[in-house]
Amino acid sequence: MTHIAAVILTDEEGKILICKRGEGGSCAFLWEFPGGKVEEGETPEQAAVRECREELALDVTLGPAYASLDYSYPDQDLHFTFFCGRVTGGEMEVRVHEEACWVAPGELKDYTFCPADVALVERLAWERQIELPIMPEMAAKLIGMLNAAGYEAWAVGGCVRDSLLGKVPKDWDLCTSAKPEQVKECFGGTYKVLDTGLQHGTVTVLADRDTYEITTYRAEGDYEDHRRPEDVTFVDSLEEDLARRDFTINAIAMGPDGTIIDPFGGQGDLKSGVLRCVGDPEERFAEDALRILRLLRFASVLDFTIEEETWQAAYNKRKLLRWVSGERIAREMTRLLCGKAAYKVIAQSGEILTCVMPEIEPALNFTQKRGGEEQNLWQHAADTLAYSPDIPEVRWAMLLRDLGKPYCRETIKAGDSVFEGHGEVSAQLAEVILRRLKLDRKSRDTVCQLIRFHGIRPATGDVSVRRWLQLLGPKQVSSLVHIWWADAAAHHAKAEKLQEFEHTLKETLEKAGCYAVDQLAITGGNLLTAGLAKPGPSMSNLLDWLLHEVVEGRVENTKEALLDKAREWQG
Ligand code: ATP
Ligand code: MG
User: Fold this and answer.
1) pLDDT attached to residue 313
2) Torsion of CA 491, 495, 498, 499, to 10 degrees
């Protein structure tokens, strides 16, 4: 365990200073707090002050130690001691450009961090009780209207959970003692009401261009095939409605005045970052196996730990996941993969995930030797998730990119292995998985293409960059760069070549370099006028060849140069 003394530097408005990892600027998405390792013979305070000076050229005065926590990054266990500190000397301004900036906790979501750091920053912001979003006026008004008509009504579920966590909920769901017909009657004269989910007791109200789902208190009917039932029974009390919900943190109700109804201890679990089933976990997962994946998804998105009994039950009931439809699995998996703690959850849940993706099984116990060190393939896939941005296709590719390795191992001297062709085999396995999960075709093709190319180390230089852009287009090449970086970061490899490639890529894209026919400084019309081609296949062959010559750097992308070049084509 390494002891890190870190400083949360605050300005007068209580904003937090965040710093980009300086060295080499190698990974755009790696951030860290000012601070560093406590050396022998040093107090944490001394280490913090020293590091701020060394790292940021700032003098700081520290408050008392404000928080401490243990944190597992993919590669090491750290014990942090945090101090609140104010800047007392040194020039902040010079460092502000790109490397460090002040942000209000509410603005954290606008920044791209290393996922592990987001979790840390958010937790700290939350512990400091930074302003909680309050219920939007419209949600409060709808509750008021139901109350005025003699019914109970509450905000419930994800919106209460997120607002207690200091996040802005994406939508506000309400629950009420009024039956669907009564809800419609209550709002019908004022707002547009849709009965989208009537058989589940849900009515959608369109108010102020927002939609609000209002669901009658209900219990769920009998479960069939371990999936949510088609029909429901309405109940009279809020408590009964909360009891049917999956996890304690999702079973809290809130009134417009901030009143909280929390019969299952959800707030306590929110505070300690714990996921726990409401009621008997085995029963709850047996009723609806999708909850197993929701559990993993919430653990990843919120970076919460899973309470022991709940985890055991999820594990014991994992085979019931075979009853869940591909689409629902894909939806949860994508959210799980894009969560900030995906690297932890994936590492922990391989055996559960084999029940929805049996193709991953050979990877779970497969070890490869890398630079003399044994490395587990699944663990490595999980680790690299921590270093890749939360773009769904990139995360899916990171997860599945090495599945083909167990099929392609060849041992070379010193016991190290090579895996020639594993990109292609992995892409084919990914294709099978993603087809079964009914991921949309475009995303599936994108993921498989990224996997196919992930193992290539790109050559540097303008020509190479243009070739890559011509082959895959800018979006895919940027995604590949993310994947290459993640691999390098997970190995702590110095990747100067990749840095150079990325730099040239940026330049090429900024100066609108030419890597597609429609970027040529010449059109078919120009060739026609110059008498160099006729409409038809020869024209498009000529344009393709001109592009090839530009990409290879043998001709400049100007009209004159291209016309001259086209004359050579005539032979
Ligand atoms: P998000 O909207 O961020 O996905 P959420 O918690 O709001 O999170 P929803 O799927 O919108 O998730 O569901 C709303 C609420 O309904 C949940 O908070 C939970 O109380 C309940 N719920 C949803 N799905 C289930 C389920 N499969 N079993 C039990 N309760 C569920
Ligand atoms: Mg929701």
Assistant:
1) 98
2) 130
Note the pLDDT of residue 73.
64
Q: Which residue has the tokens 């087809």?
A: 435
Residue whose CA is at the smallest distance from ligand 1 atom 25: 246
pLDDT above 50: residue 93? no
Tell me which of 449 and 107 has the higher pLDDT: 449
User: What are the backbone angles phi and psi of residue 259, rounded to the nearest 5°?
Assistant: -60, 135
pLDDT digits (tens, 9 = 90+) for 69-91: 776 666 778 787 877 777 777 76
Residues 6+ apart with CB under 8 A from 168: 106, 133, 162
Q: What is the 3-state secondary structure (H, E, C) of 398-459?
A: HHHCCCCHHHHCEECHHHCEECCCHHHHHHHHHHHHHHHCCCCHHHHHHHHHHHHHCCCCCC
For the residues 464-469, what does the mean pLDDT come to? 93
Q: Which two tokens stand for residue 279?
A: 């009621």
What is the widest separation between alpha-carbon atoms in the chain?
89
Q: What is the pLDDT of residue 378?
A: 95
Q: How many angstroms separate the CA atoms of 68 and 127, rounded? A: 12
CA distances from 256 to 154, 270, 544 (A): 8, 20, 64
CB 285 within 8 A of CB 291: yes
Residues whose beta carbon lies within 6 Å of some atom of ligand 1: 157-158, 173, 228, 245-246, 250-251, 288, 290-291
Beta bridge partners of 369: 374
Helix axes 474-490, 441-453, angle to 10 degrees: 50
Measured in Å, residue 339 CA sits from the centre of ligand 1 at 17
pTM: 0.78
